[in-house]
Amino acid sequence: MAKNKSKDNSRGAEGFDSYYSQVYGERWNDLKTALLQESNPVSYNLSSLLSDNDPEIPLRTYYLDCASILAAFSLPLKGAKDILDLCAAPGGKTLVISSLMDEDASLTSNERSFERKQRLSKVVEEHVPLHIRERISITCSDGALWCKTKTDCYDRILLDAPCSSERHVLNDEKYLLQWSPARIKTLAMEQWALLSSAYRMLKSGGMLLYSTCALAPKENDEVVERLFKKFEDAECLYIDSEEYKKISNDFNKITVFSENLRLPQYEKTKYGYQILPDAQNGAGPIYFAILKKRVSVL
User: Fold this and answer.
1) Omega cis (within 30) before 90
2) How far is CA 90 from CA 42, 54, 102, in A?
3) CA–CA dist 3, 187 (Å, integer)
4) 213 is annotated as an active-site residue
5) What does the pLDDT read at residue 250?
6) Which of 55, 61, 146, 286 is the most exposed place for a label (fewest CB within 10 A)?
């Protein structure tokens, strides 16, 4: 006689609730409620950056999470000549970087999926002025393997890694029923492969921003912690009060915005920062850490 299989309470909606309740404690109910609400994307338009030589074609407005804008703003770009957006699709952070980078800087926006790369190309074509677009190269490659042919070649790298995206899971019954803790483990392995590859491609003295829209520390601080165990020249950079003020001023005054926006407040984690929707009027979730490869002293 076949034995009755007991229900696996670690999977699906029940397992999801249990897992994140352990991570966030009493805060989870409020956080879950905020995640179930519609997000409030804001408009980002680069029309004010049009030059006299650009075609007189209206640039489309792109909508993205305010927390994503803050994360991209937090990567220092001044003086950087060679910039890489390693997992760039659908293209929001590429737009932010392109609007902030120096006039003599070039940006490579990479996406491993051909279909998503096509979408990325369309976003850049429709949202970025021609004189900036001419300095953007769009590639289709597996970022985790790219370090085998490229090393020490970028001044700045933005890695917005594939992640659990709990907000999307919660709002899609199909994905919620399929959820399991194993998914987090698998993604953390993928994130580490991408981060270690990106770090190898970073020049000495260069800076890297690692970000996800995940809630699980295993995909955030714990991935970054592996970097410090693997590479002795890696260090974290933190945003002090003066830097935050500068970012805030740029964020509120830059003319590419179609409306006046307030800079979201972040919460400090062990190695980086997190913006959570229950505390920031629906913005996020976003985690990001700013990393630097120290200059070698011979």
Assistant:
1) yes
2) 16, 24, 23
3) 33
4) yes
5) 75
6) 55
> Which tokens hold the place of 297?
């002293």
H-run or E-run covering 210: strand 202-212
**Can you tell me the distance from the alpha carbon of 118 to that of 114, in angstroms, rounded to the nearest whole number?**
6
**What does pTM read for this prediction?**
0.94
pLDDT tens digits, residue range 197-209? Answer: 999 999 999 999 9
> Which among 66, 87, 163, 213 is annotated as catalytic?
213
The residues that bridge with 63 in the sheet, in sequence order, are: 43
- Secondary structure E strands in 198-280: 202-212, 234-237, 267-268, 273-275
Report which DSSP code applies to 286. Answer: E
- Strands (DSSP E) along 228-281, which ranges? 234-237, 267-268, 273-275
Q: Is 79 left (phi over 0), alpha (psi -120 to 50) or beta?
A: left
What is the maximal distance between C-alpha atoms in the chain? 81
In this prediction, residue 21 carries a pLDDT of: 97
- Amino acid letter for position 203: K
